[in-house]
TrEMBL record:
Regions that span the bilayer: none
Protein's name according to its UniProt entry: Aste57867_17387 protein
Alphabetical list of InterPro entries matching this protein: Ankyrin_rpt (IPR002110), Ankyrin_rpt-contain_sf (IPR036770), SecEffector_AnkRepeat (IPR052050)
PANTHER family xrefs: ANKYRIN REPEAT-CONTAINING PROTEIN
Pfam families the record matches: Ank_4
Lineage: superkingdom: Eukaryota
Length: 319
């Protein structure tokens, strides 16, 4: 009996069958993977701050590949929006620095019924902890969480994580996987998915990349793929003031009056340089919608510029 009591290994095995918690895991009890429940007045899917596009969030639980649990993009997004991943990271950093990956099996066992497995998997993907992912793979835990593995890795730009998941059989993608990588500006990920994803992307890849100013990705997609783009690409670029992209995509579209719509979008968000460019390409065009949009948003410099322009034929006739 004394030999048993003096053996830390045997005592740990005995403790596995006892109630309670390990001292090094207690700090994790104060953090959790987000429940995804919407709080009144809360904005968790703001396009400018979300890692997933609204279109991808709307698919929510559509799986990327084989999974034992239903995935939830909305839970992943709310986890980020509420900064829970940041709070958890410092705890994980300290724990891994002291213990490495040796205690992951204990973590999984202790928190088997609490949803903390999602916290562990999310942190490993989001912060590209490949040693942790390898351990979770060997424990057969990666498919037993609600985390959208491929989408999260692509949206955060972790090519090494994508490659690991692909090589170990977790590589199912939807078009949103590549779309959101493009939207978030991860060119190497987009290029890799172009070569390896069977489903590729949709027109939303250029739409998102243009809206957020990723010229290198738009150039690559225009040269390498044929999904094209929608008018939202031009309007999104105009709204955020990406003049080079507005000019490029307007020329690519071949639609004669698309810059008139872009001028209104730019006026509404106060992007004077874009407004000036759009007007100069259609000098003498009607500016009344742009004036109304700028006035509603109180963009005085845009209003001053537009009100200096002469009335177009239709406005002159109306007066």
């Amino acid at each position: 009996m004394l030999a048993v009591l003096l053996s830390s290994v045997l005592m740990e095995h005995i403790a596995d069958f006892q109630p309670g918690s390990y001292s090094d895991l207690r700090s994790f009890e104060i953090v959790s993977f987000d429940d995804g429940v919407h709080r009144g007045g809360e904005k968790i899917d703001d396009e400018d701050n979300s890692i997933f596009s609204a279109a991808n969030l709307n698919t929510n639980s559509v799986p990327n590949g084989p999974t034992e649990f239903p995935i939830s993009r909305k839970k992943a997004q709310t986890h980020i929006a509420r900064h829970k991943h940041v709070a958890a990271r410092s705890i994980f950093d300290a724990w891994y620095a002291q213990r490495g990956t040796t205690r992951i099996p204990k973590f999984v066992r202790q928190f088997a019924r609490t949803g903390h497995a999602n916290l562990l998997v999310f942190d490993a993907v989001f912060y590209a902890r490949l040693d942790v992912l390898d351990c979770l793979h060997r424990l057969s835990r990666l498919r037993r969480s609600h985390v959208p593995l491929m989408d999260l890795a692509a949206a955060t730009g972790h090519l090494d994580v994508l490659q690991f998941l692909f090589e170990h059989g977790y590589g199912g993608c939807t078009t949103f996987t590549m779309d959101d990588a493009a939207r978030n500006g991860h060119l190497e990920v987009v290029q890799w998915l172009h070569e390896h994803s069977k489903v590729g992307c949709s027109f939303r890849a250029i739409d998102g990349a243009a809206a957020f100013g990723h010229l290198d990705i738009v150039d690559f997609l225009l040269d390498s793929r044929d999904e094209g783009f929608s008018i939202d690409a031009i309007l999104g670029a105009a709204t955020r003031g990406h003049l080079t992209l507005v000019a490029l995509l307007a020329d690519e579209s071949g639609v004669e009056d698309v810059l008139l719509q872009a001028m209104v979008a730019a006026a509404a968000s106060g992007k004077l340089e874009v407004v000036q460019y759009c007007y100069e390409q259609h000098e003498g065009c009607c500016v009344q919608k742009a004036i109304a949009a700028a006035g509603k948003a109180c963009h005085a410099d845009v209003l001053r510029y537009l009100k200096q322009k002469p009335d177009c034929t239709c406005c002159f006739s109306y007066h």
